[in-house]
Amino acid sequence: MDGLEKPTFDHKDRHDIYEYVERHGAMEPEDVRTSLGLDQRAFGHHLAVLKRDQVLEVEHGKLRIAFEAGAQEEYETDGIEFTIRQAREEDLTGLVGAIRQAIGSGEYIRAETVADVVDSEGVLLRHNDIESRMFFVATVNGEVVGWVHLKHIDLDKLSHTAQMTVGVLEEYRGYGIGSHLLERGLEWAAKQGFEKVDNALAETNEDAIEFLKTRGFEIEAVREDHYKINGDYVDEVIMAKNL
To answer: What's the whole-model pTM score?
Structure first.
């Protein structure tokens, strides 16, 4: 399935299969079939059509939404080898852990909220009539060390924008991982037809603000005393980049 293009279905059972996988995340095909109460032969036929149309795919034995999000990329900087790729549902626990560890001080409220939502839903990728979200991750030796997250609210008046978070574990900063993640996220957003990407940060998160400034983001607005962190009121800085 190409990016955020909404799939259409000419059979109710195919719609139900897709909706179930979208809602619950990657699952064994047989678990999906039994949960929906579908006959094996009918389920096999519908699944074959959904796979043919690149709406769903089976990877590592699990049925998942099929996103066309580009190839896996390999890099090496100063002896550190890392991979940038689309996140998979199996990355959920490691990704949530990496976000929580990276934001540590609590100065990245949007990223903290993303981690909370993903953790509570138990589903990493979303693609429904309300919202779509995509993650790319950076991994070292198979472990998630960084991420870029893009979220799109499915409203006509917001159809041209996407929200973003991006971060890297402290011990892996300085190797260009954050830059590669940001570039991958922006490249993907541009291909989906988004015109602008924004990020919201606490004013005290100076390193992140400077990181985005040096990569073409501009301060679009400041909401005074929007956060209360450790008893102190802190401004929210909204940064954006036109694509």
So the answer is: 0.82
